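Exercise 7. Predict the joint structure of the components listed below.
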Amino acid sequence: MSDYRGSLEEAARFMRKHDRFLIISHVNPDGDTTSSALATALMLEELGKTYVIVNEGETPAKFGFLPRFEHIRNLSTDVVDETFSAVIAVDAADSRRMGDVRHLFSSDAVLLNIDHHPTNDRFGHTNVIRTDAAATAEIMFELMEAGGFTCTNELAVCVYTGLLTDTGGFRYSNTSPNVMEIAAKLLRYGVKPGEIAERCLEEITLEHVQILRRSLQSLRLTHNKLVASLRVTHQDLVETGASSEDASGLVNYGRNIEGVEVGLSFVETEPGVVKVSFRARNQVDVSRIAKSLGGGGHAKAAGCTMKGSIDEIEQQVHTKLSEDLGVAADE
Ligand code: AMP
Ligand code: MN
Ligand code: MN
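Solution:
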C-alpha cells in the first residue's frame, strides 16, 4: 500500500513536471477509461497544462455528457500531427490496449500507466496500479487527493461515472466500502446519480435491442449447463445496422441464467475478427483464460480479441473452460 501511495505522489509530480500531455483511453472504450481520461484532463487543466486525448476508435456517444468529451480525438478519423514526450494511459491492462498509438510517442516519451486490472503488466515508466480498486476512476479520486487537486463538480461527475459503470451500478462484488464512501462524497459536489445512471445504464439503442433479439436465438448451453454462449456474426451487425458497441452487454444474459457459471459472447466485429467477452460467477477466474488467449481483465469480467472463424474460436474457448470446470463442452 505504501508503494501505491508513493506511486500516486510520483504520478502527481509527473503531471507537474511536464507541460503537454497525451492522454490515452483503451480500445473499445467504456465508462471507466473515458471518465478516467477526462478526469486526468481536468486535473491537468488545473495545473495550467495542455493535452490531447486520443482513442484508437470512436468513444460511445452515450458518454457525451461528460465534461471535455468533445476533446477526445478518434484516431481512425482524426489526424494528430504531433508527437508527445509525456503520455498517460488510463484503464489499459497492457500496452496493446492503448491501440495503435506508437506514432504519437516521441523517442524520449515517458509513460504513466494508471490501472486496476490484475492482468496489468506494468508497461509504464511509472505505474499506478491498485488491483483491488473497483475502477481506474477510484484511483483517479485517490490521485486527486494525493496530488492536492480540487474536487470540482466536473471532476466529481467523471469519477462517479467510472465508479458507476465498472461496478455495474454499484452491484458487482467490487463494490467496496471505499467505493460507496467516494460515491457519497461525490454526490455532495452536485453529481446527479439518476441522470448519470439513465445515460450510462438504462438507455439503450434500438440497434441494441435488434441485435439482442438475434443473439438470443443463438444461445447455447454447454458444459453441463455451466456455460452459456451467445454469438453475433458480422452479417448480423450489417443486417441490423448495429455497431459492436450496440452488442456490448449481451454477455450478461447468458451469465445471469440460474446455475450458469460462465457467460460468453462472441461478436464478430469485422469479418474474421471476434471479440470474446467472459463473465463469471464463482468457479472460474476468467481473466486467466482471457490472458492465455491474448486478452485480460478481472476474475469475473474479462475479454480478448481473436482472429479466425467464430466456430473455431468458440471451440477453443470452450476447450479452455473444460479444463477449469472439469466438464467436457458436450456434457
Ligand atoms: P468487455 O467484455 O469488453 O466488457 O471487457 C471485460 C473486461 O475485460 C474489462 O475490464 C476490459 O478492460 C477487459 N478486457 C476486455 N478485452 C480485453 C483485452 N483484449 N485485453 C485485456 N483486457 C481486456
Ligand atoms: Mn475499461
Ligand atoms: Mn476499469
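Discussion. The two ends are 45 Å apart (CA to CA).
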